[in-house]
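Ticket reopened. Same input as before:
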Amino acid sequence: MQRLSCRYFVLLAAALGAIALGHLRDATPVRAGQSEWAGKKLVVGIHNRTPWAYRDKQNNVVGIHPDIVRAVFAPLGVTEFEFVISDFGAMIPGLLAGRFDLIASGVAITPARCEQVLFSEPDVAVGDSLLVLKGNPLKLHSYEDVAKNPQARLAGGRGSENTKNALAAGIPESQVAMFPNNEAAVSAILAGRADAATLSVPSAIGVIEEQKVEGIERALPFKGLIKPNGQPAKLYTGMVFPKSSAKLRDAYNAEFAKLRAEGRLTPIMAKYLFTTDDDAGAITTAQICGGNG
Amino acid sequence: MSFLEVLSGILQGIGVTLTVTALGMLYAVPFAFAAGIVQHVSRGAAYAAITALIEFWRSTSVIILLYGFYYTLPTLGLRLSAITVGSMVLGLHIGAYGSQAVRGALQAVDKGQGEAGRAVGLNNWQILLLIELPQALLAMVPTFINQFIQLVKGTALVSLVTLTDMTFRAKEISQLYYDPPKIYFALLVAYFLLCYPATVAGRWIERRVGAGRKVVHDL
Amino acid sequence: MTFDVAFTLSIVPKIAGALGTTIAVALLSCVFSALLGFALEVVRRTGTAMSYLMRFAIDFIRSTPLLVQLYFFYFVLPVYGIKLPALAIGVIAISIYYSGYLAEVFKAGIDGVAPGQFEAAEALGMSRLQSVLLVVAPQMLRNIAAPMGNYFIGIFKSTPYLAVIAVHESFGAALDIASDTFRYTEPMLVVGAIFLGIALILAWLVRRLEAYLAQSATR
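Engineering reply: fixed in the latest deploy. New output:
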């Protein structure tokens, strides 16, 4: 009996020591590069569109949002990313189906989307643009112009907020056709199946400058959807996370705030031809989700 | 981009195309055999059940099933990779067609063969495995070559669920360089290079095998 | 995301409402593919250089996926000035694709009519036209009815592909709902069930037709 209790006490002491040591490790603060995602790979959904997120001629994934993601996650120790290309309208469903960890592809923050997913704080704010046949034969310079002309057909990306803005501006659904991606929408204009396509300003510039599509131009000047308060509607973009990834989203926000404060966001924006006017500014995601965007 | 540059860009996706094809065959061939044989030998409730299963996989629109499985299974807790979903859906769909060819080939074997087997004292399973199936196999070879071709063509659909096969690569290129004639003609050529040799081989085998023998065709 | 029955029921009208386009595309494609397939087979039988070209054209069509051919016609034709609505492109692509298969069906059907039939009709004093219309054609139709019916079902199941070129048919409607509400389960279930249901009914009809024709042949 005596020897048993001795061994028993030694084992107990060892066990308690191990538990204590374990707790001690937890008490150490997380150092840079030591976040819980350090060394892990993140799967990122993109939709292959300049300048948001796309694969360039050298097969690297570039674009304003992948670049921001890389810059933000580097201090957290994440350097490995797998980019999955999906149609725009299929990205959020893909996120919800667990196919990616986040989306970094120019997705606009909207109240409807806020109900399904978590957004990071906004980075840039963009307006809508209209692509038309060279010469703008139907003289379309606003969504109202399209609505006023019952023969005019508008092409919109499936699931995109630009399309929703067009509908909100009064264009009847019968005049709008949904396309899976921009290539199809552009082809529709060239083939005479549509008279105009609605895209965000950077995407439209991307089609004309980067892809050098001939026969298309931006309708300038263009007046998009005007909000009830008289201001033109702006789309604020951010990264998209599933509702179960609040921690990841918060970590992103913390690092993104630092990125902005240290002035490292501006060069990334400039690389893709965004100006300081396009910066989202002080508006918060909570405000946009609440409908005050 | 020159035509050859486009074609080589598209062929970068050949790995995924062939992987989905190979995995799809792993679903298609066993399913075709198992389902075809079961349907051939069963009666009553079992026959109804296997027929229902085959009809489901044969009659669904494969593109709808692909989207459905890809986006919906995770919500049911089944986290299958895109490649698994793609090859499984395509494989089982084409296997269902194949099962009809297997059954047709089995039925086409002369009834006298089975009777001769019984006369020699073999039981039903032995007749099936040793007499009917080997004879039916020869008639089925063109069908399985056809299944391979159907699978290769079917893989184009997986480009719609983010798999980076040849069709996906073509669409990727087209998002950056608007040159449809080059890109889509190159894509057609890429698939032709994969499928035409198989078609020729199948035709040659059919000529060798099918002389006088009834060869079963499916879709 | 749990399955929402109310949501499912609410989207049925939108999806079923687009069935009109689906059926129109399917019917038009069936007609054109049959006509084109018949023409291809007739030309092939003439044995001229044209027939070898046709043979190669059929092989090329059958060696490439329908999806890719759809993309090709949709994106490439406008570049050469041929501007057609997406629906027309869809019908053209599906018709051309299936014409290759239907040409084979016609070949088998015509070959399946016993050669003696022509002589017999002639012996009975019928003119060429009469023997074709009254003796050969009915027998040929009997041979091709079932395989053709199955290909027609295939055409019907191929109409969802048109969603990728923005034709507003049922699958496209389901995709629009899915990208709008971020829920794929319910729309895919509805459109999948509709297509499966119709395909099963059509398959049953083809089987009934087959049985009826077999019956009348043994009279």
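The longest helix of chain B spans residues 124-154. The CA atoms of residues 117 and 127 of chain B lie 6 Å apart. Please confirm and we'll close it.
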